[in-house]
Please model this.
Amino acid sequence: MFKKIKLFWQAIRRLSGDDAYEQYLLHFAHHTTEHAEPLSQEEFFKQWQDKKWKGVKRCC
Amino acid sequence: MHKNLKIIIWVAVALLGASAISAIALNRGESISAMWFIAAAACVYAIAYRFYAAWIAASVLVIDETRATPAERLDNGRDFIPTNKWVVFGHHFAAIAGPGPLVGPTLAAQFGYLPGTLWILIGAVLGGAVQDMVTLFFSTRRNARSLGQMARDEIGPIGGAAALIGTFLIMIILIAVLGLVVVNAMKHSPWATSTVAATIPIAMLVGFYMRNFRPGRVLEASSLGVVLLLLAVVGGGWVDHQPSLRGLFDHEGLTLAWVIIGYGFAAAVMPVWLLLAPRDYLSTFVKLGTVTLLAIAIIVLQPHVHMPALTQFTDGSGPIFGGKLFPFVFITIACGAISGFHALIASGTTPKLLGNERDIRMIGYGAMLLESFVAIMAMIAATVLEPGVFFAINSPAGVVGKEAVDAIAKINSWGFAVSVEQMSQLAKDMGESSLFARTGGAPSLAVGMASIFGSAFGKGMLALWYHFAIMFEAIFILTTLDAGTRVGRFMLQDMLGNIWPKIGQTSWMPSVIFTSALVVAGWGYFLYIGVIDPNGGVNILWPLFGIANQMLAAIALCVATGILVKSGKLKYAWITGLPLVWLVIVTSTAAWQKIFSEDVRVGFLAAANDLAAKLAAGILPPEKALVAPQLIFNQQLDAYLTIFFVVVLWVVIIDTFRLIGSYLAGKPLLPITEVAHEPSRLVENWVRD
Model:
């Protein structure tokens, strides 16, 4: 039961983009070979949000 | 499960569905339980999803779950991310479900509940859901390319240009009609106006919270926003009772239209994080919450539908919009059954998140079924009202008369019982001064929802529920308005950038201001005319929007049919070909009638000529004579716009025919742009090897 609630909560966080930064850090750790620093949460959120709203995102 | 048991269950589902549909089709009694609608919808969706969609996925598209999707191959941790299928479903549904499926069925209820309900079911399972799924599949196989790019690559440059122009024009008409819906909901309603106004600073506060105060804490910020929105609904009631504040929010439609035009411009120029993004979070949460609540309320309370199955207005004399059942019920329902707009989300946006091709059926087909279900609920909410009340709210003053007594007399003469006292009591219950001539569908839907919710939570809450429903509709209509204006701006910058590259820079402020102003002027014009039109404007704008939207759907189906044929699947091309043929018949007939009909309530040119003759003869009342020249010009403009839509549509169709002809004749075609197969690393090894 507890596990299900946790899964549900994770799904909501993923859906809303609440955990986007954590996902980014994970991806960064796995995929970046050179020794670059990941973006700060604030900087990442700015880029993520601006990118999200280019193109058709909502319809009738 | 045992095979025979499965067969028995599916036979039972089919029988239940058939009896539910017979019940709603054959009912001629006083009223019918809404449960029959829910049962019919659930059975139709289940059978279509289990059999038709599964067959398309397996036999026509030949979905390959071992193939890597663009999200996997191009994974960059930002826009291309392989994502859990339920999360993708949520994103996709939140993107496709807008105000369309709420407004369309409400307006189409003037024909009775039956035609609209049948089309919402049939259109979705055979048309809309197929379009969404097939487009999602083709875009996934093409690195998540957009519909316009696919049209250009697979059919030719003409198809690509048509898709682009079609999208731009729909956007303009859509925003105008949605703006009009909000204006009509706020007209002389201090409660509604102050609540809707409060949503703007609330969204900004949420924007600041998640950008600066606690960066990235989307859920915290949104929860705060939703609580504030609910307080704004209660606060609006308080404002309504303060004589000093009341006047600040009590306005004519025209004033409100100018405010919305100004707001739309400001929202398009402002950075997204300040208004658009936070408002979208709020509207998504409120939308999903309200739709769920409505579904629970309908299932638990089982309200009765009072509208007859068919009304006399199938002959074309309806007060809400003119035109016969065929083709206008299809044009009016639009998004709840098939929406060309969805093809824009299903290509380009959703494929970037899709982790595996096997989820295409659930996301593409399934999300459209859910949208269709929202349309069914809107139909129920509109038809639980007494028909007399429904027509009193939705009939424009230009048709039934400005005075309550005249309107009631007219509606009674159609055979629908309603009285002046009943309407003023209803307005009082809902906390409004009047509910007459509140065209656009939002107020009657709000009354319907309030009466469904109210019967669960007591009549004292009716006014709160009504304004909650108005806030719920307004908030995501305004999100569509912001987002649409911004997309229109990007498209315009892109197009004009071909002529003057500098203007194509999306961050160059003079270009941003110039192109935003052009887009806002475009929809602002139609909104302005809609407000000054004594016939309500909705009767002109909604069919125009419907024609444009169905035209875009036809373009998407052309692209899909063309690709199917090119891929050597001619014998299966009917899955998109049949809905395409139907849409072309519907759209072309509707367009023909809107242009050439002699009936002044249907034909744009006939209306323009009629008004011009009356103006010349001097028989118009002075206030109408004042706006008549603008209305005449507008009707002519609408006629030309409709001609343009039809021409664009037929150009794409002929181009597709040319493609199919070349294929059959064995002539060279544009190459298929499908990306080569690459095995997925996300599925288990035994599947891959």
